[in-house]
Amino acid sequence: MDAKKEAGRQLVLLERGAEELIPRGELLAKLERSIETGVPLRVKLGIDPTSNAVHLGHMVPYGKLRQFQDLGHQAVLIIGDYTASIGDPTGRNAERPALTMEQVRENAAGYTEQIFRIVDREKAEVRWQSEWYESLPLSETLRLAGAFSLAQLLAHETFRARYEQGVRVGVHELFYPVLQAWDSVVVGADVELGGMDQKFNILAGRDLQRDRGMEIQCAMLMPLLPGLDGRKMSKSFGNDIPILLDPAEQFARLMSISDECMEPYRRLVLLDSPEDCRAAAARVASGENPMRLKLELAERIVGRFGGAARAQRSREEWERRFSRKEAPSEIPVFTCAGSLDMCAILKQSGLTASASEARRLVGEGAVYAGEERITDTGYRIDAAAAESEGVVVRIGRRRFVRVVFASAIEAERPE
Amino acid sequence: MDAKKEAGRQLVLLERGAEELIPRGELLAKLERSIETGVPLRVKLGIDPTSNAVHLGHMVPYGKLRQFQDLGHQAVLIIGDYTASIGDPTGRNAERPALTMEQVRENAAGYTEQIFRIVDREKAEVRWQSEWYESLPLSETLRLAGAFSLAQLLAHETFRARYEQGVRVGVHELFYPVLQAWDSVVVGADVELGGMDQKFNILAGRDLQRDRGMEIQCAMLMPLLPGLDGRKMSKSFGNDIPILLDPAEQFARLMSISDECMEPYRRLVLLDSPEDCRAAAARVASGENPMRLKLELAERIVGRFGGAARAQRSREEWERRFSRKEAPSEIPVFTCAGSLDMCAILKQSGLTASASEARRLVGEGAVYAGEERITDTGYRIDAAAAESEGVVVRIGRRRFVRVVFASAIEAERPE
């Protein structure tokens, strides 16, 4: 095998989706050497188990890690049980309450269970920070801290902004990048993967390795995945797609992303080649309905995390519910004793939490009776006119109830 | 015994020489309670054995500690083997090279040997930081660091100034006040003593004790002692009086302090009462030669560190050398083969390191031949006129050489 050629091939694959690669030439050289010597690269990725809520956005670097695995390299997962107890200051404006080690361990178990849907568990080296930090003496901690200057850490956007705005920065928080950097020394990382928000911390690892006279890791930074509303995907924005969500619901959420978001999902979640991305765009340009592409995309993504069979069932379910204008197969039934206005139906059936929510939704035009959009809160379904199977009332595309009338049931009863 | 009255009496003694007492009312209350309960106050003083060069300026807080001991309180000496390895950032513009634990231990042994000339060794509790820091886990270190904010530590003059001037502040240096503060929690200090430059660190101890719901220590801050040139005493300024210096040399250096400095030496080194200080000033005002008072002061101070007998011998030696215009008993002899100018004599005799230094000193009027001040660098001692024992040439008051002429020696030779 021509090592140069093979390294070039690998680099093309690995660069897919990456926003920054620091520096490209070093990674190419590392790949070449790895191919020549048969020694896999050690590719580090840190997990901060501050919670066990994993969503599609979190998965982007893990997908990249899996790609390294598939190319024969060594995945090194660092469970940040110490950094999690500090809480990564990246992108937030206040200290987090410190987690107990107990909470961290519980979160870590739940978290890794989810990422092993993508990362090959058998071929991953899993290391806990406690392995080297549990017995780190204070003298070593101080030596480690002394490798960084205050000015260097205050160059970190988050620290500086908070300091300048008078928002408290606990001195312990300065240790977040320091510990993450030391991890790279300990595990001898060749590459560290992370989101763009990890750039500062990953570069700190390069500094520390250089100080130690070690070979220096490359930084591969992945962009943030947009959420359902186009902002970055985040649980706190409520625009996320959790990995543990029911596949049918994942499918439905994926179908609700904007057409423009298909490209980043393709590139970042599926690691499609630029050619494939261009081919998809060409299909739309030539007049094909974007929904067809979105159906394919959603099926592939759900399949990636839940398997092909579930993905197919989810797609069928979705098409039955929305695309073919059919109601989903199992709709709860609400039986009316007599004629009720729409607000009362929505509230009493449990479709809304309150009458005021019901009124608001009707006002917004989100409520349908059969195919008809209801805009009058006083609207009543004509019980006599209703067929015996009742009328399907829905809010938006995903909240349904089948309204049947007690009198209609009676009328049907055999005499 | 009336506790209130006795506490008041103690406070008057303890306030002597102190520049700041934070807060006075709290110390009074602590003293009262101590007298009532018979439980001595725990008075903390940290030693940073970054070197074993102890001078009179360092001794000021130890003199105060001895006073607490004499009043029945408990001296608690903290050997800062961890803080010494950081190096106190106070009053310096750069990081210090870190000391090894070995060096720190050696320095500590030399240092304590000197302070026990003042502090009562039998009644002092000596604690090494390593006792609690050697096994401090990283998780605790982080918790401790988190008790302080970055803004709080950057309020520390030295850190802020260096940060703003772009001079490197190592992140480990932030731990200096944190560790010193934690020491106060560990030993349960009621009072912490220190120089004015320790104010920030000692107040940090109050913060941490408050956080911990403990009774809070008082801060007693001693002023800095002026050195021989009036600037603060410091080895690096070369204006210091080391404790281990030969008593006769200590005596001579003390005699060279300015008349204005007698008052702070009296107040800070001897802890004289304000009445005694006023009485001394009155003697000068009434026409007494300040040199007599300086002789008394020097004898008392040398006696404090070296004992009364040595102090008296030193005084007698000094008076023989300078005061009675006699040359000291042992003067090195420099034999001239022929007539030399003054610069050549100074250089060849080794009294100056170079001819240019010799020229400078003559120009400054610091050079004497016998009783005559020499201002002409070309000046030659008349060999014929010189008596057989030669001429004493001196620079200032303490550098001497006896110049004899080979011809004079020959002339004396018995024929």
UniProtKB/TrEMBL annotation, chains A, B:
The keyword RNA-binding applies. Belongs to the class-I aminoacyl-tRNA synthetase family. SUPFAM superfamilies: Alpha-L RNA-binding motif (SSF55174), Nucleotidylyl transferase (SSF52374). GO terms for cellular component: cytosol. The keyword RNA-binding applies. It catalyses: tRNA(Tyr) + L-tyrosine + ATP = L-tyrosyl-tRNA(Tyr) + AMP + diphosphate + H(+). Gene3D superfamilies: HUPs, RNA-binding S4 domain, Tyrosyl-Transfer RNA Synthetase. One of its GO terms (molecular function) is RNA binding. Its EC number is 6.1.1.1. InterPro entries: aa-tRNA-synth_I_CS (IPR001412), aa-tRNA-synth_Ic (IPR002305), Rossmann-like_a/b/a_fold (IPR014729), S4_RNA-bd_sf (IPR036986), SYY-like_C (IPR054608), Tyr-tRNA-ligase (IPR002307), Tyr-tRNA-ligase_bac-type (IPR024088). Residues 329-401 form the Tyrosine--tRNA ligase SYY-like C-terminal domain. Keywords: Aminoacyl-tRNA synthetase, ATP-binding, Ligase, Nucleotide-binding, Protein biosynthesis, RNA-binding. It comes from Teretinema zuelzerae. This is Tyrosine--tRNA ligase. GO terms for biological process: tyrosyl-tRNA aminoacylation. The lineage of its organism: Bacteria, Pseudomonadati, Spirochaetota, Spirochaetia, Spirochaetales.
